[in-house]
Amino acid sequence: MIQKSLEKAGHQLIITSGEDDFFTQFDDGNGWDLIILDHAPPVIDALHILKKANEIKSSTRAIFATTECTIELAMQSVKAGALDFIRKPLTSDAIVQSVNLTLGKSPEKKSTVSADQIYNIIGRTTINGYSASLISVEKDDRTKAWEVLYDVGSPDGVESEITVEIPAYTVELVKAYTDCEKMPGQESFWVAMAEEALMAYLLQEGELPADRKLIITSVGSGLRRWLDAVFTVH
Question: What CATH fold (topology level) applies to the domain 2-113?
Answer without folding.
Answer: Rossmann fold (3.40.50)
